[in-house]
Specification:
Number of helices: 13
Number of strands: 3
Shape: globular
Strand content: under 5%
Radius of gyration: 22 Å
Helix content: 55-70%
Strand order of the largest sheet: 1-3-2
């Protein structure tokens, strides 16, 4: 369509690329789907068709999900859950996918921010995985026995096995539990850490070292004494998190006021501009 003599409209080409991407996604071929999403991304800013814009965002979120870029997928799904053009049932479905992707995402500050956003969203309280979300947000240890119901919510690509032999969910929960342990202990033996995480101590040591190296957890490993030492993070990131949370809450209040009393909101905004 790009090189032929016949000229096609932007909307027509965007629609075709998105249909092809959806078909590849149905066939669980994320690589080919991403190729056509990338083509669509070059056109979507030129299109004024809101329905095509929504289809693009849905396909893009699904590609990120299939590619295991879970935190980015969660952000896109969460954004879709607020779009009024989408039916209520589909918005809740998008919110559910955002919750699942957030839980599957690697532990770290990005996931912590997303956990905070979803935990404060009242709609999440009715979702089946809210108990796991709550424990992750409150930084509590999660046991394997608590994950059985959540595992039933996962799609086939989300049940894949990682390089270390654990599933995506198992790895995410181990990393979460390790972060939770860092809030409870100043230091811990590898053997005790392995017992706490319900994994071999060698694996616990390796995951802890990787998270520290990647900056997702503060501490250091003493291999001679077989101990992990946890360090308190700088308080500034914590303050940033609290300020971000406050700003999010204020924006939510403003949006609700605008929906309930649009005339008053418009009048107030005009007065502030004067």
């Amino acid at each position: 369509m790009e090189t032929g003599q016949k000229q096609y409209s932007v909307d027509y080409k965007l629609d075709v690329y998105l249909r092809i991407a959806r078909l590849y996604l149905e066939d669980e071929d994320a690589v080919q789907a991403e190729a056509f999403i990338n083509r669509a991304s070059l056109l979507q800013n030129e299109s004024k068709n809101e329905n095509l814009q929504i289809h693009y965002k849905v396909c893009y979120a699904r590609v990120l999900d299939f590619r295991r870029k879970f935190i980015e997928a969660a952000q896109r799904y969460n954004e879709l859950s607020y779009r009024p053009i989408i039916a209520e049932e589909e918005r809740i479905s998008a919110l559910k996918k955002a919750l699942i992707c957030t839980i599957l995402a690697p532990a770290g500050q990005q996931r912590s921010r997303m956990l905070g956003i979803l935990f404060k969203d009242e709609r999440c309280q009715t979702l089946p995985a809210f108990n796991i979300l709550e424990k992750m947000y409150l930084e509590r240890i999660i046991r394997k026995t608590e994950l059985q119901d959540f595992e039933n919510l996962l799609f086939a690509h989300q049940k894949a096995v990682t390089a270390d032999g654990s599933t995506i969910l198992e790895r995410a929960v181990v990393e979460h539990n390790l972060l939770a342990a860092s809030k409870l202990y100043n230091n811990i033996l590898f053997s005790e850490l392995g017992a706490l995480l319900q994994i071999p101590q060698e694996k616990a040591e390796k995951i802890a070292a990787q998270m520290i190296t990647e900056g997702r957890m503060s501490g250091h490993v003493d291999q001679i004494e077989s101990i992990v030492y946890f360090e308190a993070r700088d308080c500034l990131p914590y303050w940033d998190k609290q300020i971000q949370s406050l700003c999010y809450d204020v924006n939510q209040v403003i949006e609700k006021i605008a929906n309930v009393a649009p005339e008053w909101m418009s009048k107030y905004s005009d007065e502030q501009m004067c």
